[in-house]
Amino acid sequence: MAHRKSSARLAKDARVAHFLSLAAKQSALSAAQASAPVLTWEAVAALEARIVGRIVLPSSPDYNAARQESNPAFQSYPGINVLCACENDVLECLAVARTYGVWVAVRCGGHSTAGYSVNSGMVVDLSDLQGVVLDPARERVHVLPGTDFDHFNGAMNHTGWHVPTGACGSVCVGGFVQGGGYGYTSRAFGIQSDLVDSFRVALANGTIVTASAQEHPDLYWALRGGTGGNFGVVLQVTYRMQRLDQVWAWAISWDAVHAAQVLTLMQAGYMKTGAPDALGYMMNLGFQNGVPVYMVQGMFCGSREDGLAAIAPLMAIPSAQLLVDKTGTYPDMNVWLEDHPYTLPDNLPDGIAETKASGYINTRLSPADWQRIIDYFKTSPNPWSLAYLEPYGGAINRYPVGDSAFVHRNVDADLVVDVFWRNPAERAQMEAWLDGFMQLVQPFLNGHVYQNYPDARLADFASAYWGPAYPQLQRVKAAYDPGNFFHFQQSIRLP
């Protein structure tokens, strides 16, 4: 029979030939000239030939799109970006990086709030490793690391099965789960890493292991909160699914004069204690059409009637308006709440950059304390600033703190502030305002920071992200990555 190459194979052959043509023009360095192995065009061509995916270089037409993080504040220029299409592609990348001493960054969705998923060396891009396989008989779901939440939730929609995911649909599983993973249903079921049954992981030495409670339990412990890019490349996550047929989505707004009263009540009765586990939400301070707005939006894992009973004290506060009152599946309601009743921040310009800061609240604030925070927020130099509270409690707090590397259990809420800017002058202005905000709330913070919101400006990041778990994380690092192959500015240091 006739043998014809596919268009994909022909395109790959063309890329390999191009790299080899460049090799012929490259002057080779002598051993005396080179202090370390040099990644040559021949090596690039050989890697391209061995992988199913493809290599993107600075000379490639799609280089800027391939290298760009979701936040344009971060601009890194990797020497080689590899779009992996299967597990073996990852192993081939790691082998080349070991041979030539290339610095590796692992990227799934590119949402690192400190830009750590891109570097100046090699980016191992997992965004094409997407897939979701449900195993209802075992109550498990297997997910590839480049799967974003739109696809993860979509695959589980109308099945009656659920795993907590984040509100942003473009965030991918691989990075999110290794930092813990908070979402609307976390108070009911735990953070996402609490539901992990096992990981499939490629180590720096090129081996693939399964990390679970039974196999490599120390690595299993570390990957649930130890943050991506520290121990290996997660190739697959298997979760324990939960039953959740439908949720009630809700949102309430109040006039500005009642905002401090709302926040006081919510901290006292809707965070660590008081509210039913089934009630999850976020409290948002933002601007709508340039006017400050105060809104709570969330989900109740149960009936509308029970949900309304749970929020009755909030609805009793004067000026309360129920803006969203809708029942449906979790995936459908997660999408609905992104845009209803309105999007915050409002009318963000295209290509705008972001700076984020956060910290955990575990100190009771008075109404006057909340009012000072609200009054400061109103002074934002532009109308795109956003402050929000992610409440803890419920299943998050009940999970044994020592059973994973995610240590942020006994807290009221995570306070997060985002500012947006278009140019260096506006950046300086907005970050100065952000610093003032964090100074104002500092007396109420416990000194820890959610590791999925990394901040490059943190001096003692190890204590902030991992606290008492850090020495054990260092021991796991030494066991599985003794050469510190995986590293970045705020990675776990060898002991």
Task: Kindly summarize this structure in a few lines.
The chain has 495 residues and is an alpha+beta fold. It contains 17 helices and 18 strands.
Strand content: 15-25%
Approximate shape? globular
End-to-end CA span:
61 Å
CATH topology category name of the largest domain: Vanillyl-alcohol Oxidase, Chain A, domain 3
Radius of gyration: 24 Å
Work out the helicity level.
Answer: 25-40%
The count of strands amounts to 18
According to CATH, what is the class of the largest domain?
A: Alpha Beta
Helix run count: 17
Main beta-sheet annotation:
7 strands, antiparallel
- Uncertain residue ranges: 28-35
Q: How would you write the strand order of the largest sheet? A: 15-12-14-13-17-18-16
Q: How many structurally independent domains?
A: 3
Mean pLDDT: 94
Which CATH architecture of the largest domain?
A: 3-Layer(aba) Sandwich
**Would you tell me the structural class of the helices and strands?**
alpha+beta
Description:
The chain has 495 residues and is of the alpha+beta class. The chain folds into three domains: 7-125, Uridine Diphospho-n-acetylenolpyruvylglucosamine Reductase, domain 2 (2-Layer Sandwich); 132-243 and 466-480, Uridine Diphospho-n-acetylenolpyruvylglucosamine Reductase, domain 3, CATH 3.30.465.10; 247-452, Vanillyl-alcohol Oxidase, Chain A, domain 3, CATH 3.40.462.20. It contains 17 helices and 18 strands. The protein has helices at 7-25, 41-50, 63-67, 87-100, 149-156, 173-178, 186-189, 217-223, 259-269, 304-310, 312-315, 330-339, 367-377, 395-398, 424-441, 461-466, 470-480, and strands at residues 54-56, 80-83, 104-107, 122-125, 132-135, 140-143, 161-162, 196-202, 208-212, 233-240, 242-243, 247-254, 279-288, 291-300, 321-328, 353-361, 386-391, 413-421. The strands form four sheets. The chain has a seven-stranded antiparallel β-sheet, sandwiched between helices. β8 (196-202) and β9 (208-212) form a beta hairpin. Residues 28-35 have low confidence and may be disordered.
